[in-house]
Amino acid sequence: MSGLKPPTYEMKLPNFQTSACRINNSDMTPLPSPEVLISEVGPRDGLQSVKATMPTADKLRWIDALAAAGLREIEVASFVPAQLLPQMADAAQVVQHALRHTGVRIMALVPNLRGAQAALAAGAQKLTLPVSASSAHSMANVRKTPEAMVDEVRAVLRLRDEIAPGVPVEVGLSTAFGCTLQGTVPEDDVLRLAHFLAEAGVDEIGLSDTTGMGNPAQVKRLFKALFSEIGALTGAAHLHNTRGLGLANALAAYEAGVRTFDSSLGGLGGCPYAPGASGNVVTEDLVFMFEAMGIHTGIDLDLLMAARAPLRAGLPGEPLYGMTPEVGLPKDWPSR
Ligand code: ZN
C-alpha cells in the first residue's frame, strides 16, 4: 500500500538505553538490550474484568512493583465514565502517580474523544483505542459501527496533534480473530479497517483476540497480512488465554514479526465463560518463554513475580494464574 507516512513509533519508544544499561543488582552485569516490548495491561484490562474494585493505594503499589521489574510500557487505566466502570474511577490519579517512573511509558485506554481529553489532561504518554472488527461486537460494545469508530479515532488524532503532538495513538482491532456475537470475522474486514486507520494517521495498529478464539496458524497468517498491508505500523499482539492457546499464539505472532505483546500479571481477569482459564496471556509465563528462548525482554523475572504480592493484597480472593510462578524458576536461571 502506498501513501502511508513512514513509521514513527520506534522513535517514540521510551529511552531504550535506560533499560539496556540497567544494572542487575544480583550480579552487577548490564542486562542485554530488550528485543521485545512487553506491554503490561493488567491494571486496565485485568482490573476492569474483575468485579471488585482495587483500592487506589494498592494499585499504585502494584504499578510501582511492575516498573521495578523492568516493564517499559504499562496500560494503567481506562478513561471511561465512573458510573460505567467504578474500577477505573481513579484513572487520572493513577496516571499521575505512574508518571514518576521515567523510562516506563504510561498508557491509557480511551474509548472516545472525551476519554482522550481526560487522559491527555492527566498526562498519559500513549493512548490506545479499541476498534472492533466485528460490527456486532462494535454495536454491542460502543453502539457505533466500526466505520463510525474510525471517525472517532480521527477526532482523537486531531486533538492529539493540537495539544499533545508527541503522544502516540494506538488502535487495537478487537475481535480480530473471531467474535462470540458474530462468529467468524472476515480477515478482509480486519485488513480494510487497518488500512483506513493507517491512512488516518494512527501510529500503531495491533490485533486483539478479545474472545480468545484465535489459533496459531490464524494469528501468524493475519499478522503477516497486516505487515503487508501497513508495514511497520503493525503494533501489538493482544492475546487472551481463554482456550489455553495464549502462549502458542504469542509465539506465532513473534514468528510473523510482531515485537510488542500485551499481557497481564497473574493473567488477571480470568474469563467468566472458561473456568480455570486466565484472561490475558500471563506476563510471567510470556516473559519466561521469551527469556528461555534467549529473546530478551528487559524484565527481571524474580521482581516480576514479586509484583504479585501487591496485586494479591489489593484483590484478596481473586484467582491469579501462571505456571511459572507456581513452579518457580529453573535452578540455574538465568545463567545461560
Ligand atoms: Zn483484552
Question: What does this protein look like?
Answer:
The chain is an alpha/beta fold. The chain contains 15 helices and eight strands. The protein has an eight-stranded parallel barrel, surrounded by nine helices. Helix 4 runs parallel beside helix 5, helix 6 runs parallel beside helix 8 and helix 8 runs parallel beside helix 9.
From the structure above, extract its key features.
TIM Barrel, 336 residues, alpha/beta, 42% helix, 8 strands, disordered N terminus, binds zinc ion
Strand and helix map with partners:
Elements: H1 9-12, H2 16-20, E1 37-40, H3 42-49, H4 56-68, E2 73-78, H5 91-98, E3 105-109, H6 113-122, E4 126-132, H7 135-142, H8 146-163, E5 169-174, H9 187-200, E6 204-208, H10 216-230, E7 234-238, H11 246-255, E8 260-263, H12 283-292, H13 301-306, H14 308-314, H15 323-327
The structure holds zinc ion (ZN).
Zinc ion (ZN) binds near residues 210, 240 and 280.
